[in-house]
Design a protein that fits this description.
Structural class: alpha+beta
Number of strands: 20
Strand content: 25-35%
Distance between the termini: 59 Å
Shape: globular
Order of helices and strands: EEHHHHHEHEEEEEEEEEEEEEEEEE
Radius of gyration: 21 Å
Helix content: 10-25%
Strand order of the largest sheet: 15-14-13-12-8-20
């Protein structure tokens, strides 16, 4: 059997697990592939399978920043697990309902146990610190040495936030051979000097939701709700240090054409946004402005950038070109962008 799609295991440096997703070998990936298998009872499924040890481990290391671990696990399975082709029911002989769910979580945890990021870094004298900074090249070298291939590091505000490990899988995800491989898609967004902070208290907050599904540390500083988002204006987009287009009326990123006009209205500790399409909200982790949106999301402003849950980073799978529009997500993807405000 030939090598199939990559499978990437995403970790965060405080030794907690985010998830396990398949990708298309270019950094892009499918999501929510089978609504009929989007389960809302992961704990019950694993318990019925007698996987109490697995559940105990997940309760310790696979944490949700909001404290709702079950919801986080459901999200990871529904979004990523349902897209693993070799976990489809048709791939099993004598298939028993939901056995693929057990396989997904067992394999993810088994891989996680082999990836001791803390030990990899400590072996090279890199340990968590509130005051020290480390050269990114030394961090990446330490993480690459045990597996012989590079990893992808992701940072927020100069702080190490996530470590992505990549594999080629020969055979099925459940029983196949996992071969460490070089990263594809998104590259490191970390500066040359990086902080590696110790884990303190509860798990870190998400990048913008990660999310769920992805966890992360919100930008430092005190958010200033509404400033400069007030009245009417446009939402210019910055990515890779350059302004590239704007958010158009449906909430998607467009790099050509005319920018849409939005109205920012004070609400509670922040503000809401409305375009000609309707109210704007983060729905299923995607920025959406439409007449079907009944409850607008309350955003804030951090350093003059649009912030969701205190985080200013938004994401797309690719940078749109020509007439292509890119959905804007609060979950980690290949391209990072920030959204500003230009009064009109």
């Amino acid at each position: 059997m030939a090598y199939g799609k990559d499978s990437s295991v995403i970790l965060i440096p405080n030794c907690e697990l985010i998830g396990h997703r398949p990708d298309n070998c270019d950094g892009s990936y499918e999501q929510y592939c089978d609504p009929s298998r989007e389960y809302t009872n992961i704990t019950a499924i694993l318990s019925a399978a007698g996987k109490t040890d697995l559940l105990e481990y997940m309760n310790k290391y696979w944490k949700d920043y909001k404290g709702d671990d079950e919801d986080f696990w459901e999200h990871e399975w529904d979004k990523h697990g349902t897209c693993i082709s070799t976990l489809e029911p048709g791939c099993y002989d004598n298939y028993a309902p939901q056995q693929e769910v057990v396989a997904y979580f067992q394999k993810t945890v088994a891989l996680f146990k082999t990836l001791d990021s803390y030990a990899f870094l400590a072996a090279k004298g890199i340990t968590p610190s509130l005051t020290e900074t480390y050269k990114l090249k030394n961090i990446e070298k330490a993480l690459a040495k045990p597996r012989g291939v590079q990893v992808t590091t992701r940072c927020r505000n100069g702080e190490l936030e996530e470590i992505w490990y990549f594999y080629n899988v020969r055979g099925s995800v459940e029983t196949g051979q996992y071969v460490p491989t070089e990263p594809d898609g998104a590259k490191s967004n970390c500066p040359e000097e990086v902080k590696y902070l110790p884990k303190i208290g509860t798990p870190p907050s998400p990048p913008a939701t990660t999310v769920t599904s992805s966890t992360g540390t919100p930008p430092t500083g005190t958010p200033t709700p509404g400033v400069p988002f007030s009245g009417r204006g446009t939402l210019p987009v910055t990515s890779g240090g350059a302004t590239k287009g704007c958010i158009i009326s449906g909430g998607t990123w467009y790099t050509t054409g005319t920018c849409a006009t939005y109205t920012a209205t004070a609400s509670g500790d922040g503000f809401t946004l409305t375009s000609s399409k309707g109210k704007c909200a983060v729905t299923n982790s995607v920025l959406t402005c439409a007449s079907t949106v009944t409850e607008a999301t309350v955003f804030t402003s951090v350093a003059d950038k649009l912030a969701y849950n205190g985080a200013t980073d938004f994401y797309t799978a690719t940078i749109p070109t020509g007439s292509v529009q890119a959905p804007v997500s609060v979950e980690q993807q290949a391209t990072t962008l920030t959204i500003g405000w230009k009064s009109s």
